[in-house]
Amino acid sequence: MNVSQKSKENKDVFTSTQEVIRTALQTMNEPPAMYDLLKEPMRMLTVRIPVKMDDGSVKVFTGYRAQHNDSIGPTKGGVRFHPDVTEEEVKALSMWMSIKCGIVNLPYGGGKGGIPCDPRTMSMRELEGLSRGYVRAISQIVGPTKDIPAPDVYTNAQVMAWMMDEYSRIREFDSPSFITGKPIVLGGSYGRESSTALGVTIVLQEAVNMAGMNVKGSRIIIQGFGNAGSFLAKFLHDAGAIIVGISDARGALYNQEGLDILELLDRRDSFGTVSHLFPDRITNQELLVKECDILIPAAIENQITEQNAHEIKAKIVVEAANGPTTYAATEILTERGVLIVPDVLASAGGVVVSYFEWVQNNQGYYWPLEEINEKLANILTSSFQKVYQTAQTRGINMRLAAYIVGLKRITEAVKWRGWI
Ligand SMILES: NC(=O)C1=CN([C@@H]2O[C@H](COP(=O)(O)OP(=O)(O)OC[C@H]3O[C@@H](n4cnc5c(N)ncnc54)[C@H](O)[C@@H]3O)[C@@H](O)[C@H]2O)C=CC1
Ligand SMILES: O=C(O)CCC(=O)C(=O)O
């Protein structure tokens, strides 16, 4: 796909998010001014970041940080390093974060950052320069009580550590609560690394119960084998599911008898790539329409569209990725009786444990893993039920229901503050 097609797709992601927000607010009888406030991030910063590359040249990168709405509290959300990042995509991602935080009741609004770049072709020294340069460029608008970044696609605990160190140097005091997803030794939380996948597993279990199915013995396809996808494959494999398909940026693997997940986990690289090691690779698009009971997109946006929604075989789609299904495809799948657990609910485990990390940093007292996972399970189980019941009671699809649940707290906060 060429650059202009990608940027058109990202624009579509942004405008269709606006449409779902508009419909949700209308259903909630909110005044038009509420939509005017929430249809765009309240702040969008674009920065230029010069980085000295290993060959002696200077490369200037573009960076974005979007802050959607801070009526409930500081904004929160990951930073993405990926070649396809665009301004529209980062804006949409920040809007989804607001809704996600609203659904799981966190004292945050949504934020998101991104840099169009390809970390797979950069050295560690260049990546460190880029991570530190990004923090210097956005330092005025971020901070533990303003906007708290975290990992997303192709960023990890090492990138968070560099960013935290740079911020602490600028402010001249140690600031662990500036960012989450850090290594444990620097104030990271137990369970953050696996939290997105654990959250997906918890809501998947709820969805399976509602559909009268069992995780054990279910045939599952997972698109994406990075942080979210790889932990998910392990958790679901351990729960007795048969993982029949996985994929990464280079292709996909499918075997209706089940893949050898432990071997794939062992051989994947640090960017979540493994499919190129096998000769019988298929494409990501071919994988999505293969036979399975449950489909879990856990990579990037716009994967299930009007083009392939009719061919999806799964009975349940659980969105670990942000924005993998277009709204038109949501309607087609719902019409076909496919139960969708939307991204803003299914992928909320990461930000929930990021919140726990921030709380622990602020109080300087750290919780054991069992306590974190138990708190996470309670939040996500009740959030699933809230969204599911809203969908049932109003006779609407799960995505619109999730937006209504998520927007409710934001609109309340906006009104109490006297903004509208
Ligand atoms: N890491 C986190 O805490 C959270 C992540 N998410 C979402 O989960 C999704 C995956 O994120 P992570 O696992 O953290 O990223 P990651 O960087 O660890 O892994 C990304 C995976 O997607 C694959 N990928 C990249 N470009 C692709 C393409 N064009 N087509 C197919 N596959 C491609 C990569 O090969 C890799 O397997 C994203 O949508 C992210 O926003 C959501 C909530 C939290
Ligand atoms: O952990 C966080 O703060 C945010 C994670 C994130 O970017 C997401 O849920 O999409």
UniProtKB/TrEMBL annotation:
<dbReference type="InterPro" id="IPR033524">
    <property type="entry name" value="Glu/Leu/Phe/Val_DH_AS"/>
</dbReference>
<feature type="domain" description="Glutamate/phenylalanine/leucine/valine/L-tryptophan dehydrogenase C-terminal">
    <location>
        <begin position="189"/>
        <end position="418"/>
    </location>
</feature>
<dbReference type="InterPro" id="IPR046346">
    <property type="entry name" value="Aminoacid_DH-like_N_sf"/>
</dbReference>
<comment type="similarity">
    <text>Belongs to the Glu/Leu/Phe/Val dehydrogenases family.</text>
</comment>
<dbReference type="Pfam" id="PF02812">
    <property type="entry name" value="ELFV_dehydrog_N"/>
</dbReference>
<dbReference type="InterPro" id="IPR033922">
    <property type="entry name" value="NAD_bind_Glu_DH"/>
</dbReference>
<protein>
    <recommendedName>
        <fullName>Glutamate dehydrogenase</fullName>
    </recommendedName>
</protein>
<dbReference type="GO" id="GO:0016491">
    <property type="term" value="F:oxidoreductase activity"/>
</dbReference>
<dbReference type="InterPro" id="IPR006097">
    <property type="entry name" value="Glu/Leu/Phe/Val/Trp_DH_dimer"/>
</dbReference>
<dbReference type="Pfam" id="PF00208">
    <property type="entry name" value="ELFV_dehydrog"/>
</dbReference>
<keyword id="KW-0560">Oxidoreductase</keyword>
<dbReference type="InterPro" id="IPR036291">
    <property type="entry name" value="NAD(P)-bd_dom_sf"/>
</dbReference>
<dbReference type="InterPro" id="IPR014362">
    <property type="entry name" value="Glu_DH"/>
</dbReference>
<dbReference type="InterPro" id="IPR006096">
    <property type="entry name" value="Glu/Leu/Phe/Val/Trp_DH_C"/>
</dbReference>
<dbReference type="InterPro" id="IPR006095">
    <property type="entry name" value="Glu/Leu/Phe/Val/Trp_DH"/>
</dbReference>
